């Protein structure tokens, strides 16, 4: 259908998982989608699936993000999906681990927000959707020490952007997924041992993992004008994990 018809969307970390599902769902709803990631091989597939443009972008590189925003031009939807799950407690988290997680999970969103906002303000509006997590933004989870800190920061950054630009047509929401079946989630389950997948499933009272398409459905809503009255909110979608 055409819920995003006439809109231009920019997506980070779009090669796999949630970012990919969002880029494809935006395209299916009629948006002109610019999908980026550091994994160029997997990105190439997206062009065959309706995404208008793909390009390599490392969201840890400020100059590259700024150049890419110029290249993208008018952008009505910015979806920030890049993020890394560090496994461990405070005792396992070196300064380097801390800095890497905050750089990739939080400062990346600061970079894209700063790069795209001037154009969004000049055109009179846009919707920014950040991928946070139920872990950190809502609840604690074991061995998610710095990850949770970064995702709480994403929720706070989201509220700040929403508050600062609420009268300028900019909306900024974040999505807090629970346990979603993606390549990195499956790696984490495998690393947890033979019962890993069952352990991850057992976290949800619904008794299953979420799908990236279920996250993308919420992203389409938040990106579209249907959600015009919501901003600054951390939207949970977690199969009852935080219930
Ligand atoms: P994933 O972790 O399987 O893949 C991540 C993607 O990010 C890859 O395509 C990778 O190439 C890309 N990437 C890594 N470093 C990058 C960089 N510097 N610049 C640009 N791209 C980079 O994907 P996922 O599991 O769907 O996670 C996406 C987001 O969703 C993350 O922010 C994650 O924290 C969040 N999230 C995931 C889950 C889950 O259960 N999968 C739950 C809550 C939140």
UniProtKB/TrEMBL annotation:
<keyword id="KW-0560">Oxidoreductase</keyword>
<dbReference type="InterPro" id="IPR002347">
    <property type="entry name" value="SDR_fam"/>
</dbReference>
<keyword id="KW-0520">NAD</keyword>
<dbReference type="InterPro" id="IPR051122">
    <property type="entry name" value="SDR_DHRS6-like"/>
</dbReference>
<comment type="similarity">
    <text>Belongs to the short-chain dehydrogenases/reductases (SDR) family.</text>
</comment>
<dbReference type="InterPro" id="IPR036291">
    <property type="entry name" value="NAD(P)-bd_dom_sf"/>
</dbReference>
<dbReference type="InterPro" id="IPR020904">
    <property type="entry name" value="Sc_DH/Rdtase_CS"/>
</dbReference>
<dbReference type="GO" id="GO:0016491">
    <property type="term" value="F:oxidoreductase activity"/>
</dbReference>
<dbReference type="Pfam" id="PF13561">
    <property type="entry name" value="adh_short_C2"/>
</dbReference>
<protein>
    <submittedName>
        <fullName>NAD(P)-dependent oxidoreductase</fullName>
    </submittedName>
</protein>
């Amino acid at each position: 259908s055409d819920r995003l018809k006439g809109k231009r969307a920019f997506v980070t970390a779009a090669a796999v998982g949630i970012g990919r599902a969002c880029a494809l769902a935006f395209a299916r709803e009629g948006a002109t989608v610019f999908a980026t990631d550091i994994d160029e091989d997997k990105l190439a597939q997206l062009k065959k699936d309706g995404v208008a443009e793909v390009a390599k972008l490392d969201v840890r590189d400020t100059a590259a993000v700024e150049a890419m925003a110029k290249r993208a031009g008018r952008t009505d939807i910015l979806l920030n999906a890049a993020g890394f799950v560090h496994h461990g407690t405070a005792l396992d988290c070196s300064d380097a681990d801390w800095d890497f997680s905050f750089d990739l999970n939080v400062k990346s969103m600061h970079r894209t927000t700063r790069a795209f906002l001037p154009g969004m303000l000049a055109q009179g509006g846009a919707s920014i959707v950040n991928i946070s997590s139920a872990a950190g933004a809502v609840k604690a989870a074991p061995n998610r020490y710095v990850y949770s800190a970064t995702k709480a920061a994403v929720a706070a950054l989201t509220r700040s952007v929403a508050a600062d630009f609420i009268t300028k047509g900019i909306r900024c929401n974040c999505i807090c997924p629970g346990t979603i079946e993606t390549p990195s989630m499956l790696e984490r389950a495998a690393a947890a041992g033979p019962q890993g997948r069952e352990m991850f499933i057992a976290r949800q009272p619904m008794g299953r993992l979420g799908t990236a398409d279920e996250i993308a459905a919420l992203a389409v809503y938040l990106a579209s004008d249907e959600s015009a009255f919501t901003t600054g909110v951390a939207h949970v979608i977690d199969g009852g994990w935080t219930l």
